[in-house]
Amino acid sequence: MPIKIPNDLPAAAILEKEHIFIMDSDRAYSQDIRPLRLLILNLMPVKQVTETQLLRLLGNTPLQVEVDFIYTESYVPTHTSQDYLTEFYGTFAEVRHKKYDGFIITGAPVEQMPFEDVAYWEEVSEIMEWSKSHVYSTFHICWGAQAGLYYHYGIPKYDVAPKIFGVYRHHLCQQNEPLFRGFDDEFYVPHSRHTEIRKEDIEKVDELTILAESDDEAGVYAIANLEQRQFFITGHAEYDPLSLKQEYDRDMAAGMPNVNVPKNYYPDDDPARLPVVRWRSVANLLFSNWLNYYVYQETPYELDSLCRYQDNI
């Protein structure tokens, strides 16, 4: 089944070339199907890149998915035009009365700042609180995961040096967990971050379960409050094959100190060679499992009946 996206969204042309089945808003209205309704809070500076990465994965399932995008009003990104945001995005104020089957909070390039110093922290905090009563399952990515763990459970983040940068081997910590159904015993995921959350802090919170972690220095990878269907993913399974290369090339061109070659990425660690993609199947399974097991199979048909928490908003 297709993923429904706004008419003329630039990501559509890329996805069509990859044979990802999409439909625009006009065609979707003629379908007599109750699609899954997803909301994406896109905190990345270049919105189109992250849109395409996520839509590629959300569209690779037999489910019909309808996506709304929002950005923060308290800080307008400088790498995406206001015209683009006006055409394809909404604000929290415009969707706060709605209910959603699923919600994705992306990463953001603010990880080295204290949470309270981030320009849009109060707004993101309000959105995360709202999600408890208006969303059936929430999927947090990278900084979004750190922000969610801090806001909901008080778990801090810590600076790391050097940067955790590369493609790292992981293993499962829980057997028969639906989110990782079909995964191999070992699997690889990209990471790119200057901060970490620590296992000992997570283990102090009874509601949280560590689902997967790195065999190397990337640490904890997937954490969940399974009862409330909240997932916190510290890596970037959604990354394109060249995402780490682009980050590495950017940092080298900017003359940043101590820029390391991404680990387990280039053959023989040679940046002159094309990277090896080891995480494509991981990304597709991760997102399709989340949609299937934690959104589609359990969400109420009538979203207005969604009331996991008392609605005080």
Automatic annotation (TrEMBL):
One GO cellular component term noted in the UniProt record for this chain: cytoplasm
Gene Ontology terms: biological process: L-methionine biosynthetic process from homoserine via O-succinyl-L-homoserine and cystathionine
Binding sites annotated in the UniProt record for substrate: 163, 192, 250
Pathway participation: Amino-acid biosynthesis; L-methionine biosynthesis via de novo pathway; O-acetyl-L-homoserine from L-homoserine: step 1/1
Keyword Nucleotide-binding: no
Pfam families linked to this entry: HTS
Enzyme class: transferase
Catalytic residues (positions): 142, 236, 238
GO molecular function term, any single one: homoserine O-succinyltransferase activity
Marked site positions, Important for acyl-CoA specificity: 111
SUPFAM superfamilies, per database record: Class I glutamine amidotransferase-like
Site for Important for substrate specificity, residues: 192
Keywords attached to this entry: Acyltransferase, Amino-acid biosynthesis, Cytoplasm, Methionine biosynthesis, Transferase
InterPro entries linked: Class_I_gatase-like (IPR029062), HST_MetA (IPR005697), MetA_family (IPR033752)
EC number: 2.3.1.31
Role of this protein: Transfers an acetyl group from acetyl-CoA to L-homoserine, forming acetyl-L-homoserine.
Similarity section: Belongs to the MetA family.
PANTHER family listed in its UniProt record: HOMOSERINE O-SUCCINYLTRANSFERASE
Listed name of the protein: Homoserine O-acetyltransferase
Natural source organism: Anaerovibrio slackiae
Lineage: Bacteria, Bacillati, Bacillota, Negativicutes, Selenomonadales
